[in-house]
Every structure is written in C-alpha cells, then in structure tokens.
C-alpha cells in the first residue's frame, strides 16, 4: 500500500494518491500525517485518487473513518473529490459519502476532468497528469 500527497497552497489544493491494499490503520495514519503538515489547511479542496487502490476495509470501518473525519477540525470545510475505478472501492466511497455530516462536500468520480469541474479547480488538470 502506498500513500502520497502534495499540497499546493497557492491553489488551495491537496492532491492525494493511494494505491495497493487499503487498511483502516494505514489510512488514519496517513490522514493524521497530512493534517499535521504545516502547509495543510482544512479550507483547501482536495482530490484523493483511489483508482489504484483495493479495499481491505469493512463497512463498519468506513463508518468509523467517516465518524473520525466528521469530528475532526481538519476536515469538512472544503470539497473533496474521490477518484475510483474498482467497484468495491466505489461502493465503500458511496457509503463513506453518505455517512459524512455534509455529504455535498464529497464527490465521487471516474475521471480527473469531472473531479476538477466539481472542485472548480481547472488547475487540477495541469497538476495531475
């Protein structure tokens, strides 16, 4: 499992990429690392690319992840787009979206173009090629 992110403060944008098997422990650890970055702001929009990910999460763990983020001051103030390919990851992303306090801040897409449009961040297309 591999997690990478880049923060673009000038564009108020976070690009996050996850590949391989995803576990709840690793996902929370990665999220806490991102939130601790000095350049990170909860007001930045984000893209998380899960197209290379396979899920090892249960539905209950997805509920727990949503609860964790709902309670965090570091999330839920700006929209995030989720890129998916795998049908299981898609289903779990939809479960996650519905568990969020403001589910309109989570969009699920299959292309970067649609994600950029949702986030109103055309610069995403040049940053994420």
In short:
The protein is an alpha/beta fold and 129 residues long.
List the main descriptive attributes of the protein structure presented here.
alpha/beta, 129 residues, 5-stranded mixed beta sheet, 28% strand, globular
Please count the helical segments: 5
Helix/strand-derived category reads alpha/beta
> Percent of residues in helical segments?
40-55%
Work out the number of β strands: 5
Backbone CA Rg: 13 Å
User: Would you identify the regions where 5 or more consecutive residues have pLDDT less than 50?
Assistant: none
Biggest sheet descriptor: 5 strands, mixed
What oligomeric state do the depicted chains represent?
single chain
Strand content: 25-35%
Morphology call: globular
The ordered string of helix (H) and strand (E) elements is EEHEHEHEHH
Distance between the termini: 21 Å
Mean of pLDDT = 94
Biggest β-sheet: strands ordered side by side in the sheet: 1-2-3-4-5
Please give a structural write-up:
It is a single chain. The chain has 129 residues and is of the alpha/beta class. The protein has 5 helices and 5 strands, in the order ββαβαβαβαα. It has helices at 24-36, 59-71, 87-99, 112-119, 123-127; strands at 2-8, 13-22, 45-55, 80-83, 106-109. A 5-stranded mixed sheet has the order 1-2-3-4-5, sandwiched between helices. Helix 2 packs across helix 3. The chain is globular and about 35 Å long. The mean pLDDT is 94.
């Amino acid at each position: 499992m591999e997690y990478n992110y880049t923060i673009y403060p000038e564009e108020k944008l976070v690009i996050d990429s996850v590949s391989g098997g995803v576990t709840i422990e690793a996902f929370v650890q990665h999220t806490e690392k991102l939130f601790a970055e000095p350049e990170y702001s909860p007001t930045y929009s984000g893209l998380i690319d899960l197209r290379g990910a396979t899920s090892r999460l249960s539905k209950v763990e997805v509920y727990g992840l949503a609860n964790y983020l709902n309670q965090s001051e570091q999330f839920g103030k700006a929209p995030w787009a989720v890129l998916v390919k795998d049908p299981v990851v898609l289903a779990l992303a939809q479960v996650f979206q519905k568990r969020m306090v403001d589910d309109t801040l989570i969009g699920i897409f299959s292309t970067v173009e649609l994600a950029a449009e949702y986030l109103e961040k055309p610069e995403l297309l040049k940053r994420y090629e």
